[in-house]
Design goal:
Helices cover about 50% and strands about 5% of the residues. By secondary structure, the protein is mainly alpha-helical. It is built from 15 helices and 3 strands. The chain is elongated, with a radius of gyration of 22 Å.
Amino acid sequence: MKSFTTTVATVSMALLLSPAATVAQQSTVAQWHANAQTLVAAFTGRGNAAQAYTMALIQVAVYDATVAVRGGDAKHKRKQEPFIADLVAPAGADLNAAIATAAFRVGYERVNSNPAARANYWNAYDAYIAGIPDGPAKTDGIAVGEAAAQAVLAARSNDNFYNTAAYANPAADPGAWLAVATATPYATAGANDFAMAFTMPLTASSPDARRIKPPPRLTSGRYSHDFEETKAHGALASSDRAPAMTDVVQFWTESGFTLWSRNARDIVTSLGLDEFEAARALAAFSVATGDAMLACFESKYAYMFWRPWQAIQRADQDGNRHTLPDPAWTPAVRANHPEYPAGHGCYAGSATQVLELLFGDIAVTLTSTGAQVAGWPVVSSAHYDSLDEINDDTANARVWGGLHWRTTMERSSTWSAKIARNAVCGRFGLECGKGGFGHDGD
């Protein structure tokens, strides 16, 4: 059973914390995850795929530093394997210094834009380290954190993240997505995160190794059905979208990166995990979602499938006698990258899968600052009795917001869940049983 809390005002950060998260004390891992989120969210010119991947690198360094100091899972007395950096920490090395240094160094080096955000991150690190008593434990902790960070930076130095591939619109054929040079009522400008289509993932052999299968044919019955649903419910001025549906749309207009980073951290905090368990959970979460988002954007720019606004306005060109054009059709929510697969679907599918692998199918209360549709109420929180409900809600939000087709949403969440399993099973102490990953991922 899902329930929403709405408000017409901007929601304060204090109100956005789930009740459980406000009671539990935030760990050093969670504190530096929050600091990293602020930095990465300010990564100039980068979108959700770049942000999710960058956060994964930061959390891997934190995890490896924590494994080096703690030696693994204290509760079960077993040694956990690091993800990249196989280090042995000096006895007594300060864990907090190691965590903060690992997070700081990777974040500061990888986020190479927005000088103000980088300066704030540097200042936060200086203030935090100054609060740790001087001595061999602090010095050794800093050294461990630096070593973990440098190992991650070296391992990913040829990931092609900083490529300068230039986007160019294809021919305006039926089904082809076309970027707009300046923002319109239908789309925001540019081709968001195009370079991410060429970035090497952490846990796959190539950017296209996990590409989703092609979208439905324009003349198929599935496409016709999806077309009619989005056309009816997704228009900005739709009379078929009830207020409760509008709330769902607005809730999921927050950036996937900030929404999922904050909520994953709040879940970890609410469970009262120790530093090792928190580092393990947030690293697994970040690797799963980071690699899913890279695959998502690689597939987007491979298929270049048009958005509903383009399809509905130009339906007389699609060769489907069941679809009728509306040249003035305007979506409730805008975007600036191809339709298939869906970014929010990829994020939700991978996020809920890794959370279930870590904690089981738990009930959660998610928070949002989504306010993209002007004049609509801001929806501050939503409660879900099951993680599967989140995928259903995300799918509804993007269809009812006019951004996506139903089939796209359903395929995206299922496919990205497989990526999440493939990315983390056998790593971070997660043994997930049988289940491979087909090349088409669907």
